[in-house]
Amino acid sequence: MHSNEIATAGGLGDTVMIPGFYRRIGCRTAALVPLLLAAVVACRPAADGVRVSDTRRLMGVAWTITLHAPTEEAGREALLAAFAEVARIEGILSDYDPASELSRLSAAAPTDEPVPVGPDLWRVLEHAVAFRDASAGAFDPTVGPLTVLWRQTRRSGRLPRPDRLAAARAAVGPQALELVAAARAVRLPRPGTRLDLGGIGMGYAADRVLDLLHGRGIDAALVDASGDVAASGPPPGAAGWRVAVRGLPGDGTPAETLLLANAAVTTSGDAFQAVEIDGCRYSHIVDPRTGLGVAGPAAVTVIAPDCTTADALATAASVLGPDAGATLIGRFPGSAARFVAVADGRAVVSTTATWPAQFAAQGGRPGGE
Fold first, then answer.
1. Over the chain, what HEC string results?
2. φ and ψ at residue 68, rounded to 5 degrees
3. C-alpha 306: how far from chain center
4. Tens-digit pLDDT profile for the chain (369 aa)?
5. How far apart are the C-alpha atoms of 352 and 286, rounded to whole Å?
6. Strand 115-116's sheet: what is its strand order?
7. According to the 3-state scheme, what is the secondary structure of 135-187?
8. Is the model's pTM score more than 0.70?
9. Domains in the chain, please, with CATH?
10. CA-to-CA dists, residue 316 to 128, 179, 189, 213, 357, angstroms
11. Which residues on neighbouring strands pair with residue 186, listed in sequence order?
12. Residues 6+ apart with CB under 8 A from 125
């Protein structure tokens, strides 16, 4: 995340600072600075029970979970269960762990017959395919071969050779992934296909945490996966959780405070994971349609009823840009976006018509699946 900000989570007196420039595309180890610099459990009396918070490093980033529980013991137990749930999802969706379910599925490509998958991987793939179709391929779960190639590009500072780019692109796209709903199975017909759920996996894990906490009777919680932020009900005595969103570093854009309840917000951008090649600045976020990084600098912040949607839309909107990105956001009820770009050395900010001027207190977050 490369942020020097320290975030606190809570009611109207606390604010989570989200620099609007750091979304990484991937459930993987990233060069990130945690929003909270110490992993400690903090408990304090609240109007209704106690407020409990802890930070752990999972999915390559710092996860901070804050909740209000009837007792300190219940809060600590809930936090342990919540972090265990994130670790479980990581073991399924990681594209860096060769033992994960996702990696084992990718390693089997090409598959002549559909391969049965577990319920979590199936749900994420269903969502990913829906976002792929809605975004005309700006979001694509088969982008793995291109992200691997682009990582090499960022290290070398040279654009990929045309033949290598063509080979990677041949393993990407709608025809490279087939979902067989009747068998809850996946077919990967093309050799070299590698699934990458980085643009949606952390959001899905955050939603699963809120579902788990709800099952334990805890409905006032905030999950901050180093910038993917999901909230259930507001803290006692407050209208929501304060989340401050910034623009690009040094652009002079003032921070905007959102009041979040039963909603999620995430930011995607390129400020600290970009590369300049032949005078052009490229993001770490890969456009699946070209195989190259998205031109920058730019950042997009998306609010949605759930973190799975916010995560995927932020990735897709980063690829599409403000105009087409705003059109995509408009197709998802309860969603809004703010785009920040730099033109002629000046920050240019645009928002969807639904973007909140002061705060966002959205309702109706979907429950578990």
1. CCCCCCCCCCCCCCCEEECCCCCCCCCCCCCCCCCCCCCCCEEEEECCEEEEEEEEEECCEEEEEEEEECCHHHHHHHHHHHHHHHHHHHHHHCCCCCCCHHHHHHHCCCCCCCEECCHHHHHHHHHHHHHHHHCCCCCCCCCHHHHHHHHHHHHHCCCCCHHHHHHHHCCCCHHHCEEEHHHCEEECCCCCCCCCCCCCHHHHHHHHHHHHHHHCCCCCEEEEECCEEEECCCCCCCCCEEEEECCCCCCCCCCEEEEECCEEEEEEECCCCCEEECCEEEEEEECCCCCCEEECCEEEEEEECCHHHHHHHHHHHHHHCHHHHHHHHCCCCCCEEEEEEEECCEEEEEECCCCCCCCCCCCCCCCCC
2. -115, 120
3. 11
4. 333 222 334 444 444 444 333 333 233 322 222 222 222 334 444 446 899 999 999 999 999 999 999 999 999 999 999 999 999 999 999 999 999 999 999 999 999 999 999 999 999 999 999 999 999 999 999 999 999 998 887 787 888 899 999 999 999 999 999 999 999 999 999 999 999 999 999 999 999 999 999 999 999 999 999 889 999 999 999 999 999 887 665 556 667 889 999 999 998 866 556 667 766 767 678 899 988 777 766 789 999 999 999 999 999 999 999 999 999 999 999 999 999 877 777 778 889 998 985 444 444 444 334
5. 23
6. 115-116, 185-187, 178-180
7. CCCCCCCCCHHHHHHHHHHHHHCCCCCHHHHHHHHCCCCHHHCEEEHHHCEEE
8. yes
9. 101-187 (1.10.3980.10)
10. 11, 21, 25, 29, 23
11. 115, 179
12. 117, 141, 177, 179, 186, 195, 197
- Which amino acid, residue 56? R
Q: 41 is written with which tokens?
A: 């459990």
Question: What residue has token string 């750091």?
Answer: 22
